[in-house]
Amino acid sequence: MLKYIPATDRHHAAPVSWLSSYFLFSFADYYDPNNIHFGPLRVFNDDSIAPNSGFPQHPHSEMEIVTIVLDGEVTHEDTMGNQTTIPKGEVQRMTAGTGLAHSEFNRTDKPLHIYQLWFMPNQKGLAPSYEQKDLDLLDSKNELMPIVSGQKVLEDVVYMNSNSTIYWANLKEDKEIEFKTFPIRNTFIYVKEGTIYVNGTELGPNDQARMTDEHVVQIRAKKDAQFILIDLPSSEANY
After folding, report:
1. In sequence order, which residues have a C-beta less than 8 Å from that of residue 209 and are 6 or more positions away?
2. Distance spanning both ends of the chain, measured CA to CA
3. Does residue 138 carry a pLDDT above 90?
4. Percent of the chain at pLDDT exceeding 70
5. What are 209-224's pLDDT values in tens digits?
6. Where do the Pirin N-terminal domain residues begin and end (predicted)?
7. What pLDDT digit, counting tens, does each position of 145-189 carry?
8. I want to staple 112 with a disulfide (CB 3.0 to 4.6 A). Which of 72, 80, 183, 208 is the partner?
């Protein structure tokens, strides 16, 4: 079963002048009891941050936090002692675990565009940890490129404590990708740009597809497209 969610159904938040954020799930001042999470995927925020602005230090716990930088660069500091810059095309993962605090700033004169995703971890009480990797994800061609995963059969990815995998795809017009899955898994797709057909349903920029009880996900690009696909467990016992 495929649930299509148009871009217009995202919740838009602009709590301060320098931030424009679209929430795909309940977050902050947005609460919908029917849109809390999809499997262990608890948060997916599409954030645009103005130059020379950002989030001051704030705490987290018991979440796997993934940041994907699409444009610009993030300056990151945390209470684990990490002081890093995450440029366009790189991916960061923090295990908040028993607790940490961090800040995220756009220290440049150009806008910053990121996706930030939170996953409920497969176990609680983990020690906080950090990983960052340059994966050249924006240069991949006509394939589902795994970028973050808790499935240890995959190599050269950022590891997270969740039985889930985040894929990125740059799909040229008329090219097709087939993703094989199982009825015990969920599949989530969010389109950055272009137009794709997902099992016959058309998705444009910022549209979502949430799929359950599928065996195969067929994706074809109507126009050159960039999108994220997330493979997720459907049962909490398998998070």
Report:
1. 2, 3, 4, 5, 187, 188, 189, 198, 201, 203
2. 21
3. no
4. 100
5. 999 999 999 999 999 9
6. 16-118
7. 999 999 887 888 999 999 999 999 999 999 999 999 999 999 999
8. 72
| 234 touches 185 (CB < 8 A) | yes
Tokens of 167: 């894929």
DSSP output for 13-75: E-SSTTEEEEESS-BTTB--TT-S-BTTEEEEEEEEE-TTEEEEEEEE-S-EEEEEEEESEEE
Token reading at 234: 């459907």
Contact 106, 49 (CB under 8 A): yes
pTM of the model: 0.97
Q: Both tokens of residue 227?
A: 């999108």
Which residue type occupies 176? E
| Per-residue pLDDT reduced to its tens digit, 4-30 | 999 999 999 999 999 999 999 999 999
Buried b (16+ CB within 10 A) or exposed e, 223-232: eebbbbbbbb
Burial classification of residue 195, based on how many CB atoms lie within 10 Å of its CB (0-12 exposed, 13-18 middle, 19 or more buried)? middle
Ramachandran region, residue 142 (left: φ > 0; alpha: ψ -120 to 50; beta: rest): left
Q: What CA–CA distance (Å, rounded) separates 26 from 102?
A: 22
